[in-house]
Amino acid sequence: MIEDIELETLINDIYEYYGFDFGSYSKASLKRRVNRVYQLGEFESFYEFLSKVRSDPEYYRSMIDEITVNVTEMFRDPSFYAVVRKEILPILATKPFIRLWHAGCSTGEEVYSMAIILKEAGLLHKSLLYATDVNATVIESAKKGIFPLRMMKEYSENYRDAGGQEDFSNYYIANYGIAKFNAELASKMVFSQHNLVSDNSFNEFDMILCRNVLIYFDTDLQKRVINLFDESLSILGFLALGTKETIKYSISQTKYKQLGQEKIWRKVK
Amino acid sequence: MEESKVKKCKVVIIGGSAGSLQALLQILPQLPPIRSFAIVIVLHRKSTDDTALENLIKLKSKIPVFSVEDKVPLRAGFLYIAPSNYHLLFEKNGILALDTSEKINYSRPSIDVSFESASEVYQTDLVGILLSGSNTDGTAGIKAIQEAGGTIVIQDPKSAEMPFMPNNAIANTIPDYVLNVQQLLDFIILLDK
Hints:
The complex is a heterodimer.
Chain A: H1 4-18, H2 27-40, H3 46-55, H4 57-67, H5 78-92, E1 98-103, H6 109-120, E2 127-133, H7 136-144, E3 146-148, H8 152-161, E4 172-175, E5 178-181, H9 183-186, E6 189-193, E7 205-210, H10 219-232, E8 233-241, E9 256-258, E10 264-267
Parallel strand pairs in A: 1-2, 1-7, 2-6, 7-8
Antiparallel strand pairs in A: 3-5, 4-5, 8-10, 9-10
Chain B: E1 11-16, H1 20-27, E2 38-43, H2 52-60, E3 79-81, E4 87-90, E5 96-99, H3 111-122, E6 126-130, H4 139-147, E7 151-155, H5 164-172, E8 177-179, H6 181-191
Parallel strand pairs in B: 1-2, 1-6, 2-3, 6-7, 7-8
Antiparallel strand pairs in B: 4-5
Helix pairs in contact in B: 1-6, 3-4, 4-5
């Protein structure tokens, strides 16, 4: 395993050479992932690895793809989507226009999941799904709406568990091991690169989804990002986090009301 | 009363897969409240099982269960259970962190990931216990605990429902203790100072 001081040096070098700040990332996870990249590269020394990162922007980018976690799935935690479908969409439906933000969308599986339930609720036509990630590579992938065909069995089960009634395979065309999702779903998505560490609010939203992203940040950065979400959320808007994440320590509890046991909070003032 | 050879212990981390829950359900109801260390349990299970395991252990254990969420503090006297579908990691400042990265050894939570992470932070003050299972997960982790100076304990394969995992660990390390279920219980009780 790499040393803490080596990790700190890498973090400083990345910031100095590329302006990307890993300083407030959760160290245990970051260290493990950097260590993996370092081992895979079969470097003679950590110094050799550092100079490769500094001198080779192409290598740097591929390293970022490896150390930022991009594991996601469609309808991850089906019960969450069931609650969104049953309890939140009927409220959002009363609005003339619905703006959603998927912060840290990765390869887009959850954005397409949301588009599907919006469509089934008859709301997709008046919705706009902003999807952002810090990683440009995954954004390009998300835009395509192409996911591995081998995942579809699990995703269609998740979809059913989330209250889906349709034939899930109607939403994609299967071809040579891939599933290409219908262009109609993507027609209401806007993808862009956005860094939660350093970028500001860019719009006002009725719902912000940021699931299993904050776990990679330390508690100070979590507070900053929750405040960024607060600034970006309309009154009575919803904030949804991952099943093990909370806003409890980050923001005044009088401002937000939690929906039962779900990791969904409504901004009440 | 006999004294434990383990001098200092801040965390007991227990990993297991198939057959390990049976062992735990024999140990936990008999384990009195502890004062000097925390217990962390990492068990393989279905990703959809979010709270069932935790609820079951809460029901059976005299030691209070601290529900794991991102960045909760690790406190002596409490029992923690790695949530399903996340890797459980240890931060240097005594808090727990979660990670949804790729499965390791087909598992999330992976025992190796948690054991390795705990060994880095707690080093000699860590006791790792590996229980029954039919997977190689846990071997690399228990090795890491030993290399960092911690104490390693493996369930006696003869007492394990699935002996593969303990056997694999025994073949790749020199365990400090190989214990059956009753001995495991006595061993943990003696650790409390």
